[in-house]
């Protein structure tokens, strides 16, 4: 698979079927209004096709369909072992269509084709398979009751789930929601980002082919302020799960309060600190990880290691190593299999990232490398991986989520100061520390207010462990059995014997 050349991928891209219609009750449909918008590839600026611009009318139809399907029991009351088999078939079909899904993902949002194929498709199918495999191994509880009573504690699917997802990992984010939501018997409406709707639309058809009944998984492409808002305000959506920015996450809590108090679970932004102490076991490994932490996925990562905190005594030795490691992360055409940094998602986002580079200059941070748009001749949205040194934590580039390959470097003198700087953020998604001192590692890990903590590595994770944020990075957790909490209600049933 990996041996395909850029020319091979470009040829396949020409022949690729682009489906932009909504998916409701097992079939593709135009939006009720008939409206569409253009899907433009950030890889080269090419128009890929038209996408249905769904709104309130489509939300009404899809929610009614999801509700009716849920109440019918065709999926919600199917035996868990049977749902498991269908979910595994769904994951198998994703793997069987890996090249097509990878190409759709790269064309739609610009990430390197090798990552789409090597990270996104397997990560997404694993989320479906893992959740499916788990669902017939979860037991309910019997309460500690008096002799003449029986207290059952059971979990039930919540009903209709709306999942609003972002564009940075369109397939993986969708599948982190779909895995536990579908496995536990819910009906789901996915609202993909208007910037990356294509893979969610294709996944819906594969789910149907796998045996997930029509109406259990509907996909409504469209804008946040139209169809997203309609779903978030809907009186018959039981649970809203979201991954995206903190700004929109807050708005969704308001919508829930203004409507039916639907459960709202939010995975939001981050500004993670990657802290390198002088006693790090391997400075070269730490430097390479620091570069990867800000360049992987073009820095469009909620967990991007965007604040690099370096102990002052090693900074002069360490920073040249980081700059050298960054040379291995050049922006390149996203369909070239050797590319490690692809295109940013669209022109608007490119300008936002360039705006932060301007802000870094204005605040007099010191540019060590990068800083400019590149590969303009391709028509794509590429930016050079960039490092600003000699920054301090009050700067905009240290406080705001840039969501691009722009690293902000801050020096510190003591463990206490490093922890204070790291925690001085509205976000609390993740952090990393590099040290050989076991006590320091444990104490720092306890002191950092984050949902994911890494020691002597960056960005470790798997379906087996929960993922989510403290503070304004969100609530609830994706992945692991903890994610099932979001998609089930707990019922206590008392029986007099
Ligand atoms: P975004 O908040 O702009 O959009 C996310 C989704 O919300 C999109 O589908 C969008 O159409 C929809 N939306 C926008 N306005 C809406 C409204 N008024 N009502 C309902 N829906 C609305 O985020 P984005 O730019 O797509 O994604 C980037 C953000 O996602 C970053 O902040 C990043 O940190 C975050 N993210 C978080 C995680 C995590 O797990 N914590 C993972 C990936 C991305």
Automatic annotation (TrEMBL):
Residues 33-492 form the Aldehyde dehydrogenase domain. It comes from the Bacteria. GO terms for molecular function: aldehyde dehydrogenase [NAD(P)+] activity. Pfam families: Aldedh. InterPro entries: Ald_DH/histidinol_DH, Ald_DH_C, Ald_DH_CS_GLU, Ald_DH_N, Aldehyde_DH_dom. The active site is at residue 267. Keywords: Oxidoreductase. SUPFAM superfamilies: ALDH-like (SSF53720). Belongs to the aldehyde dehydrogenase family. This is Gamma-glutamyl-gamma-aminobutyraldehyde dehydrogenase.
């Amino acid at each position: 698979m990996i041996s395909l050349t850029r020319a091979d991928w470009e040829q396949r891209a020409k022949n690729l079927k682009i489906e932009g219609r909504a998916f409701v009750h097992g079939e593709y449909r135009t939006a009720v209004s008939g409206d569409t918008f253009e899907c433009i590839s950030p890889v080269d600026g090419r128009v890929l096709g038209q996408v249905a611009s769904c709104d309130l009318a489509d939300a009404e139809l899809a929610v009614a369909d999801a509700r009716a399907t849920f109440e019918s029991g065709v999926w919600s009351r199917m035996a868990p072992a049977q749902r498991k088999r269908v979910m595994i078939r769904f994951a198998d079909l994703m793997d069987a269509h890996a090249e097509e899904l990878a190409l759709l993902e790269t064309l739609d949002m610009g990430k390197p084709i090798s990552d789409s194929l090597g990270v996104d498709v397997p990560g997404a199918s694993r989320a479906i398979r893992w959740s499916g495999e788990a669902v017939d191994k979860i037991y309910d509880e019997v309460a500690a009751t008096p002799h003449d009573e029986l207290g059952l504690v059971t979990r039930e699917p919540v009903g209709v789930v709306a999942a609003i997802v972002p564009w940075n990992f369109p397939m993986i984010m969708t599948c982190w929601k779909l895995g536990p939501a579908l496995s536990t018997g819910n009906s789901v409406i996915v609202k993909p980002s208007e910037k990356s709707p294509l893979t969610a639309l294709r996944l819906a058809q594969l789910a149907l082919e796998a045996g997930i009944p029509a109406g259990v998984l509907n996909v409504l492409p469209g804008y946040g302020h139209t169809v997203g808002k309609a779903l978030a305000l809907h009186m018959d959506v039981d649970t809203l799960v979201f991954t995206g920015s903190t700004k929109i996450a807050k708005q969704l809590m308001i919508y829930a309060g203004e409507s039916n108090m639907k459960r709202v679970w939010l995975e939001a932004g981050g500004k993670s600190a990657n802290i390198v102490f002088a006693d790090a076991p391997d400075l070269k490994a730490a430097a390479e990880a620091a570069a990867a932490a800000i360049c992987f996925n073009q820095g469009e990562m909620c967990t991007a290691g965007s604040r690099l905190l370096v102990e002052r005594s090693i900074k002069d030795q360490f920073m040249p190593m980081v700059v050298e490691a960054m040379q291995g992360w050049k922006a390149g055409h996203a369909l070239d299999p050797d590319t490690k940094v692809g295109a940013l998602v669209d022109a608007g986002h490119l300008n936002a990232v360039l705006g932060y580079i301007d802000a870094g200059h204005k605040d007099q941070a010191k540019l060590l490398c990068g800083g400019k748009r590149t590969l303009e001749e391709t028509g794509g949205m590429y930016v050079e991986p960039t490092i600003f040194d000699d920054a301090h934590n009050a700067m905009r580039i240290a406080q705001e989520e840039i969501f691009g390959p722009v690293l902000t470097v801050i020096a510190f003198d003591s463990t206490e100061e490093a922890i204070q700087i790291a925690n001085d953020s509205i976000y609390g998604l993740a952090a990393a520390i590099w040290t050989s001192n076991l006590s320091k590692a444990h104490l720092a890990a306890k002191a950092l207010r984050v949902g994911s903590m890494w020691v002597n590595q960056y960005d470790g994770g798997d379906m087996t462990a929960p993922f989510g944020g403290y503070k304004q990075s969100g609530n609830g957790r994706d992945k692991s059995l903890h994610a099932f909490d979001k998609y089930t209600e707990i019922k206590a049933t008392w029986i007099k014997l």
